[in-house]
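Chapter review: from sequence to fold.
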Amino acid sequence: MIHSVNDILKQEFGCTLSTHGVHVLDPFTGTGIFITRLLTSGFIAPEDLEYKYEHDLHAFEILPLAYYIASINIESVHNEIYQQQHNCQALPVESYKTNDITVLTDTFSTSISPPHTEQAEFTTQSANTKCRKVGKGMDLRVIIGNPPYSVGQDSQNDDNQNESYPELDARIAATYVERAAKITNKNSLYDSYIRAFRWASDKIEDCGVVAFVTNAGWVDSASANGMRRCLQEEFSSVYVFHLKGNQRTSGEQSRKEGGKIFSSGSRAPIAITILVKNPDSAEQGHIHFACVDDYLSREEKLQQLADIGSVLNPELKLSTITPDKHGDWLNQRRDDFAHFISVDGKKSAGLAVFANYSCGLQTNRDPWSYNSSKKAIANNFKRCIAVYNEQVGKAKEAKAKGQDFEHDNDPTKIKWDRDRKIRPVRSAAIIKQHNPCRP
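The token string follows.
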């Protein structure tokens, strides 16, 4: 990714990662891998190292432990390079340079000032006051990193709801969701890595490069057609290098997908995406695609990446994708299906196989509601109702004491859903002893 970004900077903007004033940000730095790799890549000339270290490199991290590890890693790598360049056996203590690169902050909560508007200065935590603030007038040219993946919790009992980012989510709604066609479930468009694409696309403003390694689901999922349309419209060039590795497939297809890029980590397919925004480019919205070979192990895929080195390597067989009118890039649909009789008569005004449809009996808690024993079902709901009433009582007691109410999230006692979970708190203010309670 670093090789590709450097090549693209030279080709598109006539500069490199070593050029003064080319600010580089890793907004999800973890333990600082991208910044440390950049320092050791050789792309920063020795005479430029100190300037880049002090002025042009930036890294955000929200987890304190990772933040401190990243700071130590970046400082250690810099000072090791410094010693090598100056042939020092040991760097004097007074010469050891701490960094103003790492910032302890929530990237998504920082301002994402829309293009052509003034940037607001980032807010950092108090323990972070000496770190560099990325503020007004900074020419942010490169955003590079590995965003987190998280679409949300599997169950309300998990009590692990994603954070809400009203400004960022409003931008997603106005772009990726607004441009999406014929999708009903839009939740996946608020996955953390999709948020990262939206945040970075706005933050890079009119000119720059975004390079992410992420879940590759957005490349061909139906729900992401609006996102794909926006990327094509907002960037002059889009490079996608698909690493496969989808372990949610089976049989021959699973064998073709090969090894998981992150080893024992995500089972999702992975892709490296590089977005180039150059208003002076002769081409706008060009999509370039390549993928690793089938049946490769993780190690073979990584070796293939190392051998290629850059998406601009002439030996890499990049294909150019022309999206269809539906926003499909891969596996483009056949339009002749549109001439068939619709199955869904509820949304279709014309002829349809079924005039209407519904979800039927939908409990959202089948393990509680279905059983071969009538007694077992009755016991399930007696237990559920008793726990619910107990929770209402505790919510009422907490309200009276001015305390926060914590739900009992034991899945063997009760199956929460979003609607049911907020009712105990509401009921605490209005409940009467003679009212029956519905779980």
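Two observations follow directly from the output. The first strand starts at residue 23 and ends at 26. Residues 374-401 form the longest helix (28 residues).
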